[in-house]
């Protein structure tokens, strides 16, 4: 077996906690929402039924409103090992009985994941991987999983389209940088700077800093004070979304999350058919189309990028980051796809001669905000490469997508299943056993031509 495959499988098993998987052994000891989506696809390469189980366990934390929380906490983890922990969120009244959760969400990758798991299971059943009919049974079990999970995913999307987009603009509003998943991206610098952290303690607990080699790899204390203040503000309104959408101090229409939702809406339409609800498919496709239109409205033609909108000021947020490629993920016109592919391979992104591997950095290399080591401000992140690879494949740009896949595998063979990568030296950063990295490695290896 390929060494990388062996390593990735070991990481998943090491991080598995029964039917769910922590993102990493120490830094992230609970279940995270969008990590679970990627991780489910990774498990699917080993056993599609285990992939479905990952999503099912995440959904045990789904609120009655439909929201799928960013974190489902493992209450056996030592208090203080991760901050903010379960007690900081004031969510007891909202989370389902028996589950402790945070009170915010993350990008809606889950329907994409479930559709992909089914694709893997169907492919195996078709190829007849084994002689004892196990692959056929596994496809049946995955289909039963789709029937079971489809209503929960439909409710999740409905919540995003209503609670987080009350005007039906087609864009999802986030109330915390953590909701974007790209926590300290330069995209959030201006709206976060406008948040007054009030009397938030100067010496907040930062257990995360003790798990990485260098604190510069993580967000700063100033950012964390604002992160904690935003949590406190949501607790103060008892997580009332309507109130928060009016006066929460951080409200941004996030193009990257919206694009993922659009792609997930299309995937959900396919799942609706498998789930015996074909009549729902049009509604999901229509939602995706609405988002694509809205993303057109966020297009900055001069710089070939898509920009988030600060809902408090109505202003576009100028930043050159990987999120500028949002239309690729959502699906866009042939012309715009071509423009974005050119931008992807330009010296600002994967085409920069300074990069050890020609893969998109999280922030453009020639942007003032670019930082080689700081988390989402420059390093390369394998799951984001995966999203672009997947999107290019779907758009029919096979050469570009295959180039990303093979380069990403080269990178991972050198760095192992690291959380993120210093793009110039190729130094592995963050956690060294990150589940979603292992998962995308397995998915890519499963797609060897
Ligand atoms: C990072 O975010 C968490 C907060 O959600 C953290 O920094 O503590 C991000 O990379 C996020 O995208 C990811 O889901 C999470 C777990 O891997 O870690």
The helix count comes to 16
Rounded mean pLDDT score: 96
Tell me the β content. under 5%
Bound chemical compounds: (2R)-3-hydroxy-2-(alpha-D-mannopyranosyloxy)propanoic acid
Secondary structure tally: strands: 11
Report on the structure:
The chain is mainly alpha-helical. It is globular. It contains 16 helices and 11 strands. Helices cover 47% and strands 5% of the residues. It has a 3-stranded antiparallel beta sheet with strand order 5-6-9. A two-stranded antiparallel sheet has the order 1-2. Helix 2 packs antiparallel against helix 3.
Task: Provide the fold topology.
Blueprint: H1 3-15, E1 16-17, E2 20-21, E3 31-32, H2 33-46, H3 48-59, E4 71-72, H4 110-127, H5 134-162, E5 173-174, H6 177-180, H7 189-193, H8 221-236, H9 241-247, E6 252-253, H10 255-274, H11 281-297, E7 299-300, E8 305-306, E9 309-310, H12 326-330, H13 334-344, H14 382-394, H15 398-415, E10 420-421, E11 428-429, H16 435-445
Antiparallel strand pairs: 1-2, 3-4, 5-6, 6-9, 7-8, 10-11
Helix pairs in contact: 1-16, 2-3, 2-4, 2-16, 3-4, 3-5, 4-5, 4-10, 5-10, 10-11, 14-15, 15-16
The structure holds (2R)-3-hydroxy-2-(alpha-D-mannopyranosyloxy)propanoic acid.
What descriptive keywords fit this protein?
16 helices, 47% helix, mainly alpha
Summarize the structure.
Helices cover about 45% and strands about 5% of the residues. By secondary structure, it is mainly alpha-helical. A hairpin with a 6-residue loop joins β10 and β11.
